[in-house]
Design a protein that fits this description.
The protein has 396 residues and is of the alpha/beta class. The protein has a single domain, classed as TIM Barrel (Alpha-Beta Barrel), CATH 3.20.20. It contains 16 helices and 15 strands. The strands form three sheets. It has a seven-stranded mixed beta sheet with strand order 7-8-11-12-13-14-15. A six-stranded mixed beta sheet has the order 1-4-5-6-2-3. The chain is globular, with a radius of gyration of 20 Å. The chain starts with a helix and ends with a helix. The relative contact order is 0.14.
Length: 396
């Protein structure tokens, strides 16, 4: 009986995370820690990472996994979830009742100039966007969910600046120092007691994306080479389909993992949701690139995002199967509406639909012998925007 209860609790963690990804959470505006959780606006200069991961906050759940939860987005008033510090403990509440312990940790380098070049994602991934420029934004054929150009100013991060930031963060422990948010706002802790609770981020990988660039392979190669000259961290990248010889170039430069993000699978939905990307590369082009990349980067080192809620769930499941058949790990992420995006008022998926998709995902992963736990870099390893690790550990 006890074992069965434990299994139910574990499955509840998976479903709770899915709910948080779909719904986001609220924070009392009168709470002292509110400004630290809910920003006035999305971070500009490419830091919003195509408007998905950078639009939320990376809470560390009591399960040990991170969860990138929307805190600045439409429809939050409908969310059943809220973050509160109660009796000096961080909690996520569901409909007013304690659901799971959770905390936030902001590393010191986020309050320095290094934050412009590299950010912490999840609990131990370093992430950056090469640029917030996107040729499809420029052409008026951009992805309808994306706000990578938030802030208006075009920013291009130089390879040497990114590499120098990573080098400085890795070698200087105090830049990686952080505190649990409930400790920072605990009036009963002395400075000495707070200092004893200090934690340090231990980076495990580097995750690079960008808007769609005119010469992406050249720009990625320069940055990857600069990073590899100063760091041994594995590197994951997100890029549009490229030829096998270009994949070899990126691999030789030091790329560990590569992601070709399908976004949506249904042909009609692709034309509407990602018009520029779909014009230049069909779903078949993405799947072909994934299959070719597996032979270069190896098993479990090729991935592809697919968004839940922008097409019928049956089509998303078909897309997951197609990605898995290509040998890549599907990364299903609930669509998150964002202020300023074309789809600002489009509703996120329901928890019920997302659960159906994730049940199918778990079957596909097992059927095709894929294992996200073996991915060395990239979004699947971070796990902040997906419940992949929870699905594999706990089921659903």
């Amino acid at each position: 009986m006890e074992e069965r209860d434990s299994e139910m609790r574990n499955k509840d963690i998976t479903r709770l995370k899915i709910g948080l990804l779909c719904k986001g959470l609220k924070v009392n505006p009168n709470a002292r820690y509110y400004p630290e959780i809910v920003p006035d606006g999305y971070a500009g200069g490419g830091k919003s990472r195509a408007g998905v991961a950078g639009s939320g906050k990376d809470f560390i759940l009591d399960s040990g996994e991170s969860c990138n939860i929307g805190v600045l987005q439409p429809f939050l008033e409908e969310s059943p979830f809220e973050f509160k510090i109660i009796d000096s403990e961080g909690w996520i509440l569901k409909e007013g009742k304690k659901a799971i312990r959770a905390t936030l940790r902001e590393p010191k380098w986020h309050s320095t100039h290094l934050f412009n070049e590299i950010q912490l994602h999840g609990k131990d991934s370093l992430a950056t966007a090469l640029s917030n420029f996107c040729i499809y934004k420029q052409q008026g054929e951009d992805c309808k969910f994306c706000i990578i150009d938030v802030g208006g100013e075009i920013v291009i991060h130089e390879p040497e600046d990114i590499a120098r930031a990573i080098q400085e963060i890795e070698k200087t422990s105090e830049l990686r120092a952080c505190y649990n948010i409930e400790d920072k706002y605990n009036p009963n802790l002395t400075e000495q007691e707070l200092e004893k609770r200090k934690k340090y981020v231990e980076p495990k990988d580097v995750n690079i994306n960008s808007g769609t660039l005119k010469d992406a392979v050249r720009d990625y190669k320069k940055t990857i080479s600069a990073i590899k000259a100063v760091s041994e961290l594995p590197i994951g990248i997100q890029i549009c389909p490229v030829e096998p010889d270009e994949m070899e170039t990126l691999y030789s430069a030091g790329t560990t993992e590569i992601s070709f993000n399908l976004e949506v699978y249904d042909e009609r939905a692709r034309k509407e949701v990602i018009p520029g990307k779909n014009r230049d590369n069909s779903a078949a082009d993405y799947l072909k690139a994934m299959s070719e990349a597996v032979g270069i980067f190896g098993d479990n080192q090729v991935e592809s995002w697919i968004l839940i809620g922008l097409e019928p769930k049956e089509k998303t499941i078909e897309g997951i199967k197609a990605i898995a058949e290509a040998g890549a790990i599907p990364l299903p992420k609930p669509f998150r509406p964002l202020y300023g995006a074309d789809y600002e008022r489009k509703r996120p998926p329901t928890l019920e639909d997302a659960i159906v998709v994730y049940e199918a995902w778990l079957d596909m992963i097992r059927d095709y012998g894929l294992n996200p736990l073996k991915t060395k870099a990239g979004c699947g390893r971070c796990n902040g925007c997906f419940p992949l690790h929870e699905l594999l550990k706990y089921g659903i």
